[in-house]
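Appendix B. Raw example, untouched.
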Amino acid sequence: MEEKISIREKQEAREHQLFSPYAAFSDASRGRERAEDLCDLRPVYQRDRDRILHSKAFRRLKGKTQVFLAPEGDHYRTRLTHTLEVAQNARTIARALRLNEDLTEAIALGHDLGHTPFGHAGERALNRVCPGGFNHCVQSVRVVDHLEKNGKGLNLTLEVRDGILNHQTAGNPATLEGKIVRLSDKIAYINHDIDDAVRGHIIEERKIPEEYTKILGHSVRERLDTMIHDIVIQSEDSCDIRMSKEVFAAMTGLRKYMFENVYTNPIAKGEEKKAEAMVEQLYVYYAEHTERLPEEYRYMIEKGGEANWRVVCDYVAGMTDHYAVQKYREIMIPDAWNVF
C-alpha cells in the first residue's frame, strides 16, 4: 500500500519547484537543538514563525519603546510595530527573490524579542551594570532558547536562531533570508523613525539633506520603494543580498543624519537619562533582593544553577516600559507618596 504524503511534504516539494537555488529549503534545515517529530502540516520555518508569534516575549513588544519615550499620540511606533514593519519589508524582498518567506518572517518577528524597556536607553543601562554585559541580539536568542515556556524555550531551528543573533550591522547571517532581515531592520527603523520624528516636530522633511533625498526620495513611501527595489534588483539570481553603492551610501548617510539629529537630540531623548537610571536601579535592587523576584526566576537560580546577575538581567530586560515604571514606583517611592 502506497504511503500517503503529508501536506508538509507537499509544501516542501513545492519549495524545490518554486524557490531560487540559493534559498534555505525547509527540508534541508540543520534542525533543532532538541530533536522533534515533524508537523504533518507545517514546514519547520513556518512552525518557528508560529511559535514566536504566540510567545509572551512577542506580546510584550507592544509595551516597549522604539525611539520616543511615552510619546503623546497613538501613531508613534513601538517595538512591536517596528518588528511588523521589518517583517513586511523582509517578506516583500524574499518573495521577489524567490527565497524562503517563512524563514525570513520567523527571523524578523524574533529579532528584537530580547530588547529592554525604554529602547536602547535600557540596553545601555544593562550593559553597564550586568557583569556579563548586555546585547539585545544575544538576549533575543536567550529568550527563545531558555526563557520562554517556563525555561524550556521554543526550540527553534538553527537557521532562525542564527538570523536573530546576527541581525545587527556587525552580524553575518548564514542564510540569504537572514541577510534580508539584517538590511530590512535598517530600512524600517530609518524610515519609520523619520516619520515619527517629523510627527514629533524634531525634524522637517524638507530639511533632510538633498544629497540623500535626491537618491532615495522625498517621503517615507518613496524611500521604502527605492531601497526595496534596489535590493531586489541588485540581488536577483545572486548568492548574496546587497544594495547598489549609490543607494547604500545614501542610506548610510541618512542613518548618520538621524543619529546626529534625532537619536541624540536633547528634545527627543532628554528623558533617556532618567530611564537609564531607573533600569540601573531596578537591576541593583533585584540583584540585592533576589527573594523578590517572581517564582520562575527564583527557580532558575535555586534549581537551575543560573548566576544571580544573569537571572536579574533576564527579568529586567523582559519588562515593558509600564511594568518597569510600576515596579520602580513600588520599590523606590514610599507608599504615602504614591498618592501624589
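End of appendix B.
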